[in-house]
């Protein structure tokens, strides 16, 4: 297959940095683009009644966090000499991530390998393994790395 990119889910901290380094190493070796993806999906968050729609408030906060985290990894990509782009997904993470993979002809998906924390469980639930199984069935040539 002629892959054009690698998709890397990003998060802060050591696990996110390790995932980004793995993605950048593969991108440099394969001479492909890395796409950093951050989830600001608040669809499954519990909402409170604070006079504003809490999911919009949370999503804006997550967007800001995502921009900071992605900016750090974009700086790393520049140092590696790797072409990059980024995307913040605000809703329906699992189906939109699949679309990003297919649209960008990604041959690889890198995911930080850490047990999901309480916020992530609220945002994406415990469906990560279900998603991985689903994506492996739909895209059997995709190489998936948990770093």
CATH-derived topology? Rossmann fold
Q: What is the helix/strand order? A: EHEHEHEHHE
Give the termini distance in whole angstroms. 24 Å
Return the domain count.
1
Count the strands?
5
Class by alpha and beta content: alpha/beta
Strand content: 15-25%
Average pLDDT: 82
Q: Please bin the fraction of helical residues.
A: 40-55%
What is the global morphology? globular
Strand order across the largest sheet: 3-2-1-4-5
Ordered list of secondary-structure elements with their pairings:
Elements: E1 5-9, H1 13-30, E2 33-39, H2 54-80, E3 84-89, H3 93-103, E4 106-111, H4 118-124, H5 128-138, E5 143-146
Parallel strand pairs: 1-2, 1-4, 2-3, 4-5
Give a verbal description of the structure.
- There is one protein chain.
- The chain is an alpha/beta fold and 147 residues long.
- The protein has one domain: Rossmann fold.
- It is 50% helix and 19% strand.
- The protein contains five helices and five strands.
- The protein has helices spanning 13-30, 54-80, 93-103, 118-124, 128-138, and strands spanning 5-9, 33-39, 84-89, 106-111, 143-146.
- Strands 3-2-1-4-5 form a five-stranded parallel sheet, sandwiched between helices.
- Strand 1 (5-9), helix 1 and strand 2 (33-39) form a beta-alpha-beta unit.
- The longest helix has 27 residues, at 54-80.
- It is globular and about 40 Å long.
- The two termini are 24 Å apart.
């Amino acid at each position: 297959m002629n892959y054009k990119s690698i998709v890397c889910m990003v998060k802060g901290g050591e696990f996110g940095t390790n995932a980004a380094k793995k993605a950048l190493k593969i991108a440099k070796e394969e001479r492909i683009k890395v796409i950093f993806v951050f989830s600001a999906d608040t669809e499954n968050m519990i909402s409170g009644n604070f006079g504003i729609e809490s999911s919009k408030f949370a999503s804006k906060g997550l967007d800001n966090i995502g921009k900071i985290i992605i900016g750090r990894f974009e700086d790393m990509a520049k140092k590696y000499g790797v072409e990059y782009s980024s995307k913040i997904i605000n809703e329906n993470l699992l189906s939109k991530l699949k679309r990003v993979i297919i649209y960008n002809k990604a041959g690889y998906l890198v995911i930080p390998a850490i047990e999901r924390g309480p916020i992530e469980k609220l945002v994406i639930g415990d469906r990560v393994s279900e998603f991985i199984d689903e994506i492996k069935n739909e895209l059997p040539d995709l190489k998936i790395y948990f770093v």
